[in-house]
Amino acid sequence: MFVVAAGLNHRTAPVEIREQLAFARHGLPAALEQLRAVAGVEGCVILSTCNRTEIYVACQQEETGIRAGKNFLGQSCRMDPKNLEGYLYTLNTRHTVRHLFRVAAGLDSMILGEDQVLAQVAEAYEIARETGTTNNILNTLWQQAITVGKRVRTETRIDRNTVSISYAAVELARQVFHGNLEGRTVLVIGAGKMSTLAARYLKDKGVTTVLVSNRSYDRAVALAFKIGGQAVRLDALEDYLSRADIVISCTAASHYILHREQVARARAARPDSPLMLIDIAVPRDIEPSAGDLPGVKLYDIDDLQQVVLANLEERQHAARQAEGIITAEVEAFFRWLGSLYVVPTIIALKEKAEAIKQAELERACNRLGELTPRQQKIIGSLANSIVNQLLHDAVVNLKKAALTPRGHLYAEALHELFNLPVEGAKSRKEAAAVEGGGQ
């Protein structure tokens, strides 16, 4: 059994491409069921965040799984699949395991060590598990990935300095307004976790007024109450836009919340006051051409990466520690995976030896004629001793091999040498694919 991945992230694709492959949470179960129905796919998980969309597939053939993931992404995107090819990466089993562990640990995030991705990894797994598209291999892999993410944060404290997309947005605002946000009015669109964090950071940095707007007005009221802000109905958004110095938007909408025309009308009321728009949503909330208006500065999620570079030195040190933890955890996973191959092999080998022993004992006893119980016991003990001694070294060495990434190769050799009837035994070509680690 292999686990492979296909996807794109903030390093391989700009936001305008990523937003076309973003899966809404409510649409994930249907997408998972569709992917699971593809021939050769024995399990799947979809991880879709602001910075990545990745398809994880459990399969008997690596090439089949990779092709299924790529084709599914091509069919799901709102663009020519041929144009998508240059943005995608594919990972074989060994690279997939390490990659997922690094993602869960925050080492593959736009902001090194950010903590939100671990919850996103856990949620992606939970949705797939509830939908019924995982299997034993994926369950173990994702549960271990979540454990790895927690262990890295506990042992390295990589996330102790607050650096997140929300924090970066606030730091960007401080830079634009020369480090002083006192007296400024901020309009926060969205009441999710990122918006909540941004609103709290803004209040901590001295913002006087925070307006909160959300599709669910009750959630806007709840957030406004927590931070001492004011709730605004979404259909009245334009009326309050003219009061804002800074707009931070992060919703789950599949279309623009703010259009160029709305921003232009708001600017007409305050032509001499600069307006900063920070769009941290994927898909984007603010029409990009709004940034072309006089006095308007528009930043999207890709612009935030530069904001936090100066704060990453300590996290990079922690990341080096984390890589050591991940290496150990990857090897632990492959030891477990190797045991899946060698245990059935050992059982099949012993069963075959036992069958041969019993058949030969019966034939020998028939040729010897009537034997006393003592004679039968001696002959039986002799046969048991011969079989056990012959198998001892093979079984011990195979168990040792199971603790290495090459365990399945030893198991495969025994399958062929002894013609063992092990269900799901892989070919040499498949085994070599896992060991090769090629991408």
TrEMBL record:
Active site: 50
Binding-site positions, NADP(+): 190-195
Associated pathway: Porphyrin-containing compound metabolism; protoporphyrin-IX biosynthesis; 5-aminolevulinate from L-glutamyl-tRNA(Glu): step 1/2
Site (Important for activity): 99
Residue span, Glutamyl-tRNA reductase N-terminal domain: 7-156
Pfam families assigned: GlutR_dimer (PF00745), GlutR_N (PF05201), Shikimate_DH (PF01488)
Matching SUPFAM superfamilies: Glutamyl tRNA-reductase catalytic, N-terminal domain (SSF69742), Glutamyl tRNA-reductase dimerization domain (SSF69075), NAD(P)-binding Rossmann-fold domains (SSF51735)
Catalytic activity line of the entry: (S)-4-amino-5-oxopentanoate + tRNA(Glu) + NADP(+) = L-glutamyl-tRNA(Glu) + NADPH + H(+)
One GO-annotated biological process of the protein: protoporphyrinogen IX biosynthetic process from glutamate
The EC number(s) this enzyme carries: 1.2.1.70
Boundaries of every Tetrapyrrole biosynthesis glutamyl-tRNA reductase dimerisation domain copy: 321-420
GO MF, one example: NADP binding
Residue ranges occupied by any Quinate/shikimate 5-dehydrogenase/glutamyl-tRNA reductase domain in the UniProt entry: 171-307
Superkingdom to which the source organism belongs: Bacteria
Residues noted as binding substrate in the record, renumbered to the chain: 49-52, 109, 114-116, 120
Keywords noted in UniProt: NADP, Oxidoreductase, Porphyrin biosynthesis
InterPro entries noted in UniProt: 4pyrrol_synth_GluRdtase, 4pyrrol_synth_GluRdtase_dimer, 4pyrrol_synth_GluRdtase_N, GluRdtase_dimer_dom_sf, GluRdtase_N_sf, NAD(P)-bd_dom_sf, Shikm_DH/Glu-tRNA_Rdtase
Function noted in UniProt: Catalyzes the NADPH-dependent reduction of glutamyl-tRNA(Glu) to glutamate 1-semialdehyde (GSA).
Oligomer and partners: Homodimer.
Family: Belongs to the glutamyl-tRNA reductase family.
Other facts noted in the record for this chain: During catalysis, the active site Cys acts as a nucleophile attacking the alpha-carbonyl group of tRNA-bound glutamate with the formation of a thioester intermediate between enzyme and glutamate, and the concomitant release of tRNA(Glu). The thioester intermediate is finally reduced by direct hydride transfer from NADPH, to form the product GSA.
Entry note about domains: Possesses an unusual extended V-shaped dimeric structure with each monomer consisting of three distinct domains arranged along a curved 'spinal' alpha-helix. The N-terminal catalytic domain specifically recognizes the glutamate moiety of the substrate. The second domain is the NADPH-binding domain, and the third C-terminal domain is responsible for dimerization.
Identification of the protein by name: Glutamyl-tRNA reductase
Gene source species: Moorella mulderi DSM 14980
The encoding gene: hemA
